[in-house]
């Protein structure tokens, strides 16, 4: 299935909603950076957020950069996107392995840790 994004507006364009499927983009990032499953999940979430936020940019030459600096073993994640859906990113430490959380899921929160999300519009 190809990656795609759906945009919706309501209330005279006062409300915007986005949804996206980014499986191919995330798989490309996983293969390029040889990321572990938990890092792939964290990076995939940020890639999806970057794609959605990038689609709101006005000009072809504008970029949006999302940076997470956390105290977890990943250390940080960076994603850059433009209005045309071009998105790329990386993790500071791509090979983090953690045990599953209490629900038996990937411990993305534990891998990223507490930290700061920065949004930079260029």
From TrEMBL:
GO biological process terms on file: protein refolding
Entry GO terms, CC: cytoplasm
InterPro entries per the UniProt record, alphabetical: Heat_shock_Hsp33, Heat_shock_Hsp33_N
One MF term in the entry's GO annotations: unfolded protein binding
Pfam families: HSP33 (PF01430)
Protein name (Swiss-Prot/TrEMBL): Chaperonin HslO
Organism: human gut metagenome
